[in-house]
Design goal:
It is built from 4 helices and 12 strands, in the order αβββββαββββαβββα. The protein has 203 residues and is an alpha+beta fold.
């Protein structure tokens, strides 16, 4: 898969769907009606290694208020300095969390927005990262930084669909297992969205 193909697929997709933690197929509140949700953005970093792309992920530290210990993308809530721009937010948060400056990243496009059960409306921004680079994790927020082959994420056999009963209600979510890491929730949902967008681009 080449960069132009990935970029073309992202540009061509119609970003009309809204995904979320409760159920990937559920009908959720549209973004224009979601004033109670907190706007946030994450970077989905595609690392352009020779021969194969990977996706860079982090594991959050255990003391954080939101999603402690979970696998995530670099990102966070939009600050006033971002002026409502999720791309600015995603790049700023990536620099702060893993020390990866924006001049190493080429923004390729965006995926569907994602609503979390904790009240965030996330815009996933896909960016191409060209190696070599050095990550400098923020020890307050990031416990680990690791990469997963894009081919693993594109293989739908690796997408595990789970259903749990929480508070008497059935909740559906995606998960992917990579080594010792269990990727689930919003991060897994965004990766499934990425795989759907790029499904016809492999090769």
């Amino acid at each position: 898969m080449n960069v132009e193909t990935v970029s073309g697929r992202l540009a061509a997709q119609a970003k009309t769907a809204l995904r979320g933690d409760p159920d990937p197929s559920a009908s959720l509140v549209p973004p224009e009606s979601s004033g109670a949700l907190v706007p946030a953005a994450v970077l989905v970093p595609l690392v352009d290694h020779p021969g194969e792309m990977t996706v860079l992920l982090t594991r959050r530290t255990q003391h954080l208020a939101h999603h402690p210990g979970q696998i995530s993308f670099p990102g966070g809530r939009l600050d006033p300095e971002d002026e409502g721009d999720p791309v600015v937010c995603a790049l700023r948060e990536t620099a702060e969390e893993v020390g990866l400056d924006s001049d190493r990243i080429r923004v390729l496009g965006q995926l569907d927005q994602y609503v979390t059960g904790t009240g965030f409306l996330i815009t996933p921004v896909v960016g191409l990262v060209r190696p070599p680079f050095t990550v400098i994790p923020d020890p307050f927020e990031v416990a680990d930084v690791f990469e997963v082959p894009l081919s693993f994420i594109l293989d739908r056999a690796n997408h595990q669909h789970h259903v749990r009963v929480v508070g008497g209600q059935s909740r559906s979510f995606w998960a992917l297992s990579w080594g010792d890491f269990l990727i689930w929730g919003a991060t897994a949902g965004i990766l499934v969205n990425l795989s759907e967008v790029l499904a016809d681009a492999e090769g």
